[in-house]
# Entry
Amino acid sequence: MPVPANNSGPSMRGKAPARRAAPHGASVRPSASASTAASAAPPASPGVLASVAALASVAALAAALAPCGPASAQAPALSQPGSAPGQVSYTDDLGRAVTLSGPPERTVSLAPGATEILCSLGAGDAVAAVTLDDYYFECIASKPRVGPHDAPDWALVTALSPDLVIVEPGELKAAEAALAGSGAAVAAYRGASDLAGARERIRALGALFGKGDEAEAALAENQAYLDVIKAKAAKIPDGSRKRMMRLRAAFGEGLGSGGPGTVDRSLVEAAGGIPWPEGAEGTLAEVAVEDFVKFDPEYVYACEEDRAAAEAARALAPWSGASAFRDGGRIHYFPCALTDRISAHAGYFAAWLSADAYSDWYGDPASLALPQEILGETPVALEGIPYVKGARIVEYRLFDFIHRTLLIEFSSPQTVITTGDGAAHGVTAVGNSYSPPMVWNINHKGGWEWAEGELFKLLGLDRSKTSLVFTGADMRNLSVKTEKHEDLTVTALVTAGAETNALRTSKDPGAFYEPGTINVIVLSSRKLTPGGAAGAVIVATEAKTAALWDMDVRSSESPLENPATGTGTDDVLVPAAGDGKPVDYTGGHGKVGELIARAVYAGVTEALLKQNGKVPRRSAWERLGERGIEIPALGEAFSEIGRYRDLASWMKAAMTHPAAKSLLESAFSLSDAQVMGQLEDTALFEAMALQAASDVAGKPVGEIRSLVDDQKIPPVLKTALNALATGILVKNGL
# Structure
């Protein structure tokens, strides 16, 4: 049965930009691997704007590059001055006029699609709180969470004294009732189902928050991506366009997909694909096996959270016979905030989706739409390192997409130690090079030697005198941290994305992943011997691991049991250079080692914030998701209750309850200790869990029910989940 499409795409669900998108290197990533992509994208850079200008000059493509379709009838209007001086007026997605005395200063955003736009516009300072479904974005990483987007805790919302609350339409009545008399304005945000609708919403929110210029820059960046993929798609040989399909685990045990006028359809069309023809206008419909076989998709993608259901279907005939799955074909997974909504990073994701679907074509020189050229550079200030002549981030277009490389030039040739190349002599420049997800397949198929050669040729670098490390983390998210002691200076330059290939060494198996990568370049003002440089690699690695453990970054391979020690593709680069008396010992007992560790630790922490929107104090709900725990899929025991979907919703809403937060935060640490063999007696924790169940229920609970039957979940964590579920059921008379 078709259901109305949820065009707001409420959550990232299983992690992102850079980008995540960030919602855009994954290491969303989106950024990086998929997660990098998920981090939030900053305003358009000069290089992106240059891409727009270059394509605009191609007259033959003018029709193809025109805006996609008419605006939604209920799209928000641009904010206009109100009747009183300083007032702003906004027409929301339900056609309601919302008037404020000036641009909002304390906004509670309960619509993740709107939150993404506000972050992309640099309006994070005006956001007072968001939902449990919002993460990946640096601008809201430390903001309070007031509950799920569809069931917020209104007491928490009102306590923040907001001047504006943005809600999805289904929560409008509850918001107006809860905020009556508070003076807060309420605006409904439905979210866009197409690219034209997204443009209108970005402009409208930009005008409302006094970020009109930033909105135009964000739109230009999105349009640059869309223009490139349209130009490339226009060159695809006849008969080579692919039948593309999004699968959703949205119909119990069945799979669904969107019809015309939905996010799914709009993204496939923007990516240059042939969309699934079934479904009513504006609805998500269950995919019948016979329709799937008839359509015979050549490329299938899904949200990370839908992986289990999608893979189960793919393994069964006749699903398994689809063209997309022959010859080792697979379902392609992306961060859910990118697949589930069209917002500020729609162009980024459409380009990534298109490049992934047409990877062979994108690697063909005949597909190129734009010249390969350097677009600009940004200086990087490095002080107190005498052998550094200068540092800059170079932005350039390669294979039609924007790359960025950090280059550090030396005043004289140096010896450099790297974990990738070992010792290199006569080096005059080092750096860290970012490639966007749109070109990952091109690089892999051509081989890294070829890809590096193209980069070196474009940048005019001598390969024999240059040492680079490579990443999918955007260089706009570079962290530069300096530590000093008397005349000694140490600087760490770090990029980090740890969303899709973080691992626990000694526990996880070796396997190839898209590069998430934590790259560290360490510069010391004191001359390091080759042994000192090698020692610096060790202490930098230890500091990186300490940062990951302190932030509870989980292994992507075994998240329930293990914190990550790295991403598996990490690199450290240290010049054996400098002035003064040589330093041979750089271990943790020495002052040089101490400064290296402090700088690297701070750099990794900041880089993960910039790239993945990650901070140590994240919501318990987010940390459950990072462990791969999805409440609705915990076990069939929930379904025996008869209202397991209600229970899942109730449990999510309970994540703002102090007792629930305290119990889960304790369980996360104690569970790791138990897995590592450090915890044997859990009687005290079980008593704590029973008390938490009573607190959540609002009445005494006699015993904790055994509701979670997933045997993979460690015992302490399972006890906590059972306690919360028990408390919620008792509270609701079940």
